[in-house]
Specification:
Layout lengths: L2 E12 L5 H6 L1 E11 L2 H6 L8 H12 L7 H15 L5 E7 L13 E7 L4
Antiparallel strand pairs: 1-2, 2-3, 3-4
Helix pairs in contact: 3-4
Length: about 120
């Protein structure tokens, strides 16, 4: 059985997108990250070192979303997955959703998003 730690609705300002104005003006992005790992060691020991520190994850996601612009939401999500696997050895799997509710589309909608699911790469 694999347990889960989630951060939902993280809000950041970034410059990702295909259109010139998106990269010039920027917009709000919302990120959900579900991290799947065994939480039993942390639950039994009450030791932060036995789990994933979501304050660190928040800072790592922020650095990516507020950093170098990407053309695609998919690329933002992939970069987040790469960094989280690199920095948090206890994470076995991830589900990452990048929301772009203010995408410049001609018409009414509530959200544009991309979700990826990734397992830790085999070494």
């Amino acid at each position: 059985m694999v347990d889960k730690v989630e951060l939902k609705g993280m809000e950041f300002f970034g410059y990702h997108g295909c259109m010139k104005e998106e990269r010039a003006i920027g917009q709000r992005f919302y990120v959900d990250v579900a991290m799947y790992l065994d939480l039993a060691p942390a639950g039994h020991s009450d030791d932060l070192a036995q789990t994933v520190n979501y304050a660190d994850v928040f800072a790592e996601v922020r650095a990516i979303v507020e950093g170098e612009p990407f053309t695609l939401l998919e690329a933002v999500a992939e970069r987040i997955a790469e960094v989280l696997f690199e920095k948090h050895e206890r994470i076995e799997r991830l589900r990452i959703t990048i929301h772009k509710p203010y995408a410049p589309l001609p018409g009414k909608f509530t959200d544009a998003s991309a979700t990826i699911r990734r397992a830790r790469p085999k070494e």
